[in-house]
Amino acid sequence: MTWTNFIFFAIGSIICWILASILIYKQKYKKISNILFLLGIAILLTFIILFWLSLKRPPFRTIGETRLWYSFFITLVGYITYKIWKYPWLIIYTSIVGIVFLIINLVKPEIHSQTLMPALQSLWFIPHVTAYIISYSMLGAATIAGIILLRKIENKKVDFKLENLIDNLVYIGFGFLALGLLMGCLWAKEAWGHYWSWDPKETWAFLTSTAYLVYIHSRLNKINIKISLWILIISLILLCITWLGIDYIPSAQSSIHVY
Amino acid sequence: MNKDKRKIWQTPWSYKESLVIVLGIIIVGFSLQTTIGGFNFYLLSFPFNIYIGIGIILFSVISSIFKRKAFFKWLTSVHLSVSLLIAITLLALIMGITRQEAIPLNEKANIFQLLGFTQMTSSWAFVLIYFLILISLGSIIAKRKPAFSKKYLVFILNHLGLWLFLFSSGLGYADMNRYIMYVEVGETEWRVFDKEQKVEELPIAIQLNEFTIEEYIPKLAVINKKTGEVQPTSKPNYYQIDTNAKEEANLFGYKIKLVEYIHNAVRNSDRTFKEVPMKASTPAALITVKGKTQKTEWVSSGSSVQFPQSIDLDSTFALVMTPPETKSYISNVDVYTKDEEHLKGDIRVNHPMTIGSWKIYQYGYDNNMGKLSTYSSFELVYDPWLRLVYIGIGMIFLGSIFLIIFGINYKK
Questions:
Q1: CA–CA dist A210, A205 (Å, integer)
Q2: What does R_g of chain A's alpha carbons equal in angstroms?
Q3: B230: number of Cβ within 10 Å
Q4: Contact B96 A179 (CB under 8 A)
Q5: Alpha-carbon span B79 to B18, nearest angstrom
Q6: CA nearest A220 in B: which residue?
Q7: Distance from B270 to chain A by nearest Cα, in Å?
Q8: Which residue is closest to B84 within chain A, CA to CA?
Q9: Per-residue confidence at B412, pLDDT binned at 50, 70, 90?
Q10: Taking Cα atoms as reference points, which of B89, B121, B127 lies closest to residue B102?
Q11: Cβ–Cβ under 8 Å, residues B134 and B163
Q12: What whole-number distance in Å separates Cα of residue B68 and Cα of residue A25?
């Protein structure tokens, strides 16, 4: 199983998710929509597992590989949240984000070698990256919900349930973000001799977490929720720079995290 | 106009005052930076870090006693917390987009260097905000009444954990020492280089019994013989040799098939290879290449003592083997300390050896010699504050797990 086989799986998942999104608002086809959505996730997971087996190493190393996981986790997180909170748009939005990342991988697969340099051969590798990807999915979903809430507020509508959903997603997402960061610290201590060295990626990870802490604490007292929601959007932009943008920042070229 | 509307600086202070004060502190920091230069963290080395720590803890206790006073109310308010978080985020953002490096000697510093942007973590603005966070966070923890509730549990794990982590990593930094030691195979060494490349003697000695390197199976590539560039130049293509592959592979229009692969090979006198398990060996592969013509020849990446060997494809292109990437390097050592402790074992990347407050890391080897390197280098890190850092990390770790399990309490 290699990137050349990816297109068949990707198209399968994409078709499932598109159909699920079309059918989700039709009461009669809700069940079919649910099944299709899960089928899309299952197809993607099958590819990931086969890909993993053929690589003989976990597919967590390159940006292309992490996008694979992101598509998987964001749709999974989307489905679970949909089941709990019953917002049909969750299915549609997470489908769109999942599909976008699959398409990016189709157009720009970034094929890399099987070799793993010594510093990456660690028990911390898989949990560190997994925690981050789950966190990114949660925080991405929270931001989507935040944008919807902002629009509702513009239309003078109130939706406390949605406010709670956003806060919950951010709490859980931040929990995973912190776990990813701390596992990174423990790993760094074992691999490089210090748990924190202000490497550019570390600096960005740090400021992403503090930005989310601004959001979390700003929700503790009566600040205008619109301001909080904008903080949430800015935080996601910072998060995306940490994840994908570091390679393009001139000051970060010496980072050990640039692949 | 609403008559009850609060004027700025009238207590209780809110966001306006908090943001103004935090901004003021940053401005003070920048002024200090431009006049007296950066903050020297080594001033905080033992025992001064202990004094400051006790001072912060005492202050936190006092602030919890006077928690009803307007000032202490503000010091532990969400308003100040948010303002401090915004400040540290912005300072880190500046750090994230500015290259962090020392100001070169004999060069006139530009405005960013003068303000400390290029050495953010030792700039006054950063350090002042760091201390204010420690004080405010400490007071917040001291103020809150302990309770047997989920809420308090999550709060205390995350906040006290963070306080311990920030405190011991920042104030403990000055007590941390890192040294590099080079040891020849078969020798024992106790002299090291410190941060300034000065030689020092340590109470630890390392005897290097054996040093081994394992390498990955290399890749094949087509290069232009004149320029050496891997083809196609726009998107270099490499073929990972796969000893299980049965089919032909396509590399830049050539069909290639692996006939035989030897990981530890030595060249015979006639451009063929045989297996010899010795350090000077090189990977070699017998490959059938089909282009306009077909040929089956040996290709090898070479080592420090064997020349590489390529397969000529035509007048312009040749098939080459890339130098093998390192899979792991392992030093088998005996470590002795002055207290007559003795440890024996392997040290490799991601698997340091711990002895007292010391950790010994595999650092490097002679890259030019590769497998033939006659020495191995180690990094020795002494960090007496590490335990406290780990306690902090452990607490936040647990706190985060609870955060994930509980979420935020559902508001009706």
A1: 9
A2: 19
A3: 18
A4: no
A5: 6
A6: B78
A7: 32
A8: A214
A9: very low
A10: B121
A11: yes
A12: 54
Query: How many Å apart are CA A111 and CA A63, to the nearest integer?
Result: 10
- A152/B338 Cα distance (integer angstroms): 70
How close A199 gets to chain B, by Cα (Å)? Answer: 9
Residue B349 near chain A (CB below 8 Å): yes
Q: In whole angstroms, what is the distance from residue A256 CA to residue A63 CA?
A: 14
- Cβ-based burial of B171 (10 A; exposed 0-12, middle 13-18, buried ≥19): buried
Extract the tokens encoding B345.
């074992």
* B95: contact with A, CB 8 A cutoff: yes
The rounded distance, in Å, linking the Cα atoms of A39 and A23 is: 14
Question: Is the Cβ pair A193, B411 closer than 8 Å?
Answer: no
Handedness of CA B34, B35, B37, B42 (dihedral sign): negative
Q: Which of B78, B98, B381 sits opposite A220 (nearest CB)?
A: B78
Model pTM score = 0.83
What CA–CA distance (Å, rounded) separates B377 from B396?
A: 34
What is the ipTM metric for this complex? 0.84
- C-alpha distances (whole Å) from A127 to each of A58, A61, A180, A183, A229 are 11, 13, 7, 8, 30
Q: Which residues of A114-133 are buried (b: 16+ CB within 10 A; e: fewer)?
A: ebbebebbbebbeebbbbbb
Helix, strand, coil content of chain B in percent (nearest 5)? 35, 30, 35
User: Are B95 and A203 in contact (CB < 8 Å)?
Assistant: yes
Exposure string (b/e) for A178-213, b if CB count within 10 Å is 16 or more? bbbbbbbbbbbbbbbbbbbeebbbbbbbbbbbbbbb
Quote the tokens at residue A115: 């070799």
Instruction: List the alpha helices (DSSP H) in B12-114.
Output: 15-36, 48-65, 70-75, 78-97, 111-114
Q: Of A174, A192, A200, which has the smallest distance from its Cβ to B403's Cβ?
A: A174
Interface check A207 vs B, CB under 8 A: yes
Of B15, B20, B25, whose CA–CA distance to B80 is shortest? Answer: B15
A221/B78 CB distance under 8 A: yes
A118 and chain B in contact, CB less than 8 A:
yes
User: CB of A102 within 8 A of CB of A65?
Assistant: no
Please check whether residue B346 touches A, CB under 8 A: no
**Residue pair B347/B378 in contact by the 8 Å Cβ criterion:** yes
Question: How large is the angle between the packed helices B48-65 and B150-171, nearest 10 degrees?
Answer: 150
Amino acid letter, residue B376:
S
Cα angle B343-B345-B350, degrees, rounded to a multiple of 5: 115
Tokens of A97: 């984000």
Stretch among A1-5, B92-96, B290-294 having the lowest mean pLDDT = A1-5
Q: How many CB atoms lie within 10 A of CB B30?
A: 18
The pLDDT tens digits of the residues spanning B220-233 come to 999 998 898 888 88
Residue where the block lists tokens 């925080």: A139
- pLDDT averaged over chain A? 88
